Amino acid sequence: MAGLAKSFGSGAMTNSIAEIDGLDAMFVTGSNPTENHPVIGSRMKRAARNGAKLIVADPRRIELAEEADVYLQQRPGTDIALINGMMNVIISEGLQDEEFIKERTENYDEVEEIVRQYPPEKAAEITGVPAEDIKKAARIFAEADRGAIYYAMGITQHVTGTANVTSLCCLSLLTGNIGRESTGVNPLRGQSNVQGACDLGGLPNVFPGYQKVNDEEVRNKFAEKWQVDKFPEEAGLTVVEMFQAAARGDIRALYIMGENPVLSDPDQQHVIEALEKTEFVVMQDIFFNETAEYADVVLPAACFAEKEGTFTNSERRIQKIEQVVEPPGEARPDWEIIAGISNRLGYEMNYESPAEIMAEIADVTPIYGGIYYDRLGDNGLQWPCLDRDHPGTKFLHEGEFARGKGRFYPVHYSPSVEEQDEEYPYIMMTGRMLYHYHTGTMTRNSPSIDEFEPDAYVEVNKEDAEKLDIENGDRVAVESRRGVVETYARVGERVAPGNLFMPFHYAESPANKLTHDTLDPEAKIPEYKVTAVSLKKI
Question: Per CATH, the architecture of 194-382 is what?
Answer without folding.
Answer: 3-Layer(aba) Sandwich (3.40)
